[in-house]
């Protein structure tokens, strides 16, 4: 599986967009980018995933660069409840019963 | 709809004791897995199952056993608890096939003294 690199922490102002980067320079053609988050030691929560096109759902947007070596998760209007650890995971979709979590990015949303 | 239910939420064991962490899901998911999370760390895969009767090892399987006799249940057994097994344990499930999200339980916080 491709390795991912995320900044260890970042702050964001409430109401502003939060842009979370992830580097996955060794990603292969059949690997998807997944994002999960973990709020205060609760179980991780799925956010979004994509292959090469940009994706959007009710929680967030995922922007993947054309060469697929990096991506950005965008929380459009961050709230205090978005304070969490965010994990970027690269995995072949069919076999992703084995999610590999790294240390993630600790996002703190400030009022 | 309960989702993924883990019991107990908290447990303290003495070194050498055995116990079973329970995990049940009511979504008819094929895939289930167990992770542990040590303080300040990401999750590490212990064991997983791709269907009833089928289990396999993850990254850190030593000291743990699993079985999957039904689609709904995936218990994790600690054979002889050690302080190194102090951790938070998460169970997850997802439908079979690709492109699907995993659903996690709320965790079991285990302390081995």
Identify the notable features of this structure and list them briefly:
heterodimer, A: about 110 residues, mainly beta, five-stranded mixed sheet, four-stranded antiparallel sheet, 9 strands, about 0% helix, B: about 110 residues, about 50% strand
Could you explain how this protein is built, in words?
- The complex is a heterodimer of chains A (111) and B (113).
- In chain A, 0% of the residues lie in helices and 47% in strands.
- Chain A is mainly β.
- The N and C termini of chain A lie far apart (38 Å).
- In chain B, strands 2, 4, 5, 6, 9, 10 and 11 form a 7-stranded mixed β-sheet that branches. In chain B, strands 1-3-8-7 form a 4-stranded antiparallel β-sheet, with no helix packed on it.
- Chain B is globular.
- The model of chain B has no long low-confidence stretch (mean pLDDT 93).
Write the layout of secondary structure elements.
The complex is a heterodimer of chains A (about 110) and B (about 110).
Chain A: E1 9-13, E2 18-23, E3 31-38, E4 45-50, E5 55-56, E6 61-64, E7 70-75, E8 84-92, E9 105-110
Chain B: E1 4-7, E2 10-13, E3 19-25, E4 31-37, E5 43-51, E6 54-57, E7 64-66, E8 76-78, E9 87-94, E10 103-104, E11 108-112
Low-pLDDT windows of residues of chain B = none
Strand content of chain A: over 45%
- The number of helical segments of chain B is 0
Shape of chain A: globular
Please give the largest β-sheet of chain A: 5 strands, mixed
Quick one: how many beta strands of chain A?
Answer: 9
Overall pLDDT level of chain A: 91
The most extensive contact between chains is:
A-B, 21 and 27 residues
Question: What ranges of chain A have pLDDT less than 50 throughout 5 or more consecutive residues?
Answer: none
The share of residues in extended strands of chain B comes to over 45%
Overall form of chain B:
globular
Fraction of residues in H or I helices of chain B: under 10%
One letter per element, helices H and strands E, the order of chain A comes to EEEEEEEEE
> What is the gyration radius of chain A calculated from CA atoms?
13 Å
Please state the oligomeric state of the protein chains shown. Answer: heterodimer
Helix content of chain A: under 10%
Order of helices and strands of chain B: EEEEEEEEEEE
| Span of the ends, CA to CA of chain A | 38 Å
Content-based structural category of chain B: mainly beta
- Amino- and carboxy-terminal Cα gap of chain B: 36 Å
Number of helices of chain A: 0
